[in-house]
Structures are given as C-alpha cells and as structure tokens.
Amino acid sequence: xxxxxxxxxxxxxxxxxxxxxxxxxxxxxxxxxxxxxxxxxxxxxxxxxxxxxxxxxxxxxxxxxxxxxxxxxxxxxxxxxxxxxxxxxxxxxxxxxxxxxxxxxxxxxxxxxxxxxxxxxxxxxxxxxxxxxxxxxxxxxxxxxxxxxxxxxxxxxxxxxxxxxxxxxxxxxxxxxxxxxxxxxxxxxxxxxxxxxxxxxxxxxxxxxxxxxxxxxxxxxxxxxxxxxxxxxxxxxxxxxxxxxxxxxxxxxxxxxxxxxxxxxxxxxxxxxxxxxxxxxxxxxxxxxxxxxxxxxxxxxxxxxxxxxxxxxxxxxxxxxxxxxxxxxxxxxxxxxxxxxxxxxxxxxxxxxxxxxxxxxxxxxxxxxxxxxxxxxxxxxxxxxx
Length: 386
Ligand code: GDP
Ligand code: MN
What we know:
- The chain is built from 12 helices and 17 strands.
- The protein is an alpha+beta fold.
- Helix 10 (about 315-330) links the parallel strand 15 (about 305-310) and strand 16.
- Manganese (II) ion binds near residues 182 and 196.
C-alpha cells in the first residue's frame, strides 16, 4: 500500500522525524487559520504518483492570497475539482538530500540509498549510493559515517549518519517496503526536515496494522482503480490494467513479471498484470480468462496469452476448462497458450498431449515461453504488414 505524502509524513512524525507543518485541504475547505502564521506556503497535490513537481502539481505561493488560484491550477491539471491537496509551510532549503531505505529483494535485506543532490532530478544523478544493511537492518551511525563523508562535508555527514541510522527501525516496525525522503531539506539554520515522503507498506503485513489507518491513502488508491480492476478484486484476484498490446493471463507475481519481461524483449507490452489475491490455493482461472476476454476487446490489444504453470492441479482438467472457454464464444483476438506442468499435474495428461489437444482445436500452444512470445511477436508483425 502506497501512502499519500501527508500520510507518509504522519507516519514519520510519530517516529520523531521532523516534517513541515501542514493541513489537508479537501474540496470546499476554507484556508485554515493556523496556516496564517507560517512564513511561506507550498500547495501540493496528493496523488499516489511521484514527479509532481515537474507536472506543476507542487506550487510555491507568493502569499496566502495566491492560494485559491494555485488550488485551481492544480485541480485543473489533475482534471479533478475534488482532488485533495496538502497546504504546507514552505521550508527554506539550503541543500536537498535524497535518503531512502528499501528492501533489496535479491539480498532479502534492507538497504540504504543516499544521493548528495536530492530533489526532482535525482533519477538522472549517477551519484546514488547503495549501502547494504545487516539482517535486522540495524546499523550504527559510526558504520554509516565512512560511506557518507565522501559525499558531504564531515559535519553534515555525521548528522546524516545519525539521521539515516534511525530509518531502518522505522521501516521494520511499520513493515515498509520503501521509505524514501526526497528532498530531505537542510535548512539555512541547520535543521533537517523531510519535505517529501514516499512510503510503501508491505500489503502482506497489513494485518499487523490498524485497518482504519490512512483513510486518505485508501480512498486515493480506490479512486485510481479502473472498473475492471475493481471487478477482478471482487472475483478474487488482483488486476492492473496497462496500455499494452497483449492481454496476459498469469497467476503469481513472479510468472507475471517474467512474461512481461519476455514480451518487452520482443517489443511487446502486456495490457494487464494479474496476480492471486489470497495465494495459490485459490482457483481463479475462469475469472481471469473472463476478464482477459474483455481486455482483448480493446482495439489496441493484438493477442491473448495464457501462460499456466501447474504443480499439483490437474493439467487435463485445466485443458478441458480452457477449451470450454474458447468454445463458448469466439475470441476477439488470437490466443497463445503456454504450458508447464509438474509430475503430479501431468498424471492424467502430459504437457505434450495437452499441446496436441489444443493444436487439434486450432490453438497455438507451447511448452517454451520464449517460443510462445516469439510466435506472438511474429503474428502481430505479420498482421501489421498485411
Ligand atoms: P515530487 O516532485 O512529487 O517528488 O514532489 P516534492 O514534494 O518532492 O516537491 C518537488 C520539489 O518542490 C522538491 O524537490 C523541492 O525542490 C520543492 N519543494 C517541496 N516542498 C518545498 C518546501 O517546503 N520549500 C521549498 N523551498 N521547496 C519545496
Ligand atoms: Mn519528492
């Protein structure tokens, strides 16, 4: 779950991290009186995507009277007059630093990311350093200082080492996949203030936290969902719609990612990503195929790919269900089926027999996912030529 900036900052504040004073402005809210005392004001769209600065969604106000114009500017840019906004005290910034803690999936441990020049251009800086942390993520300032002193003057490096050493514990206690502070502002009077926060909590740890927490983030995520994504959730799986040319039916995040990478290697993009919501025991093939058919109706979608990996569920049963789905109604786009079946799954029918059965029904089927994707690419290229 990705938190809106204001929620991410509330999380940081309860762990003693300094953030600017701020208030949420919802549609129709008047300027709150408390904001009158602030030395300056910044108005920020609360959307769950980054890069707001570059999109004109973060606006520095010349004075408090500029608020309503800035507000309109942002809601117009978003095309949403109801969009919630964060009105914040403007912080004077002498230097912007990038600091993040995240899970390094390969190492299965926490790591710290640091860039000496934070801010909007951080993606283009090559100076992002990665510091691997031990198993628990615990790290002392003394261990971080030598890594930072090459990037910052000694005094600032020492302060940042103490600051950064507090973040892994917050990430662990709050079950975060990512805790990113960019920019971490160094003010002219030497304070460190988190001016932006990108916080992502691991959904599988949601049960450890208050489910009513962060209603704004929840409603933003809800609003960002498409109608098909909502129906998929009701049917028991997760769907992400993408602008792409292949309706991709998979289950399990790893398989989905692998197929998306293979498609990309062949110049194709998936039109959707599917994953189980409740883990492997749930069988949602029929529901996933039903949604895939709807996605395949979109004119820009050129093919349907169904890649199935079976460990213990019967391949024979799955092929029967697939053929029944194909026979029920003409498919809007050509179907390509990929099959991998373990020993138990293939007891009644081998993968080769399944290929033959699908072939007899006029369906292109493969045991090698690379061959499958190549065939999809060739078919689409042929169609484009003709
Ligand atoms: P993002 O573009 O979505 O990451 O939004 P940010 O919250 O990071 O804002 C973009 C940029 O606006 C930052 O990199 C800062 O340079 C600037 N900014 C944000 N808040 C403040 C502030 O309080 N004071 C000043 N001077 N600049 C700010
Ligand atoms: Mn930012």
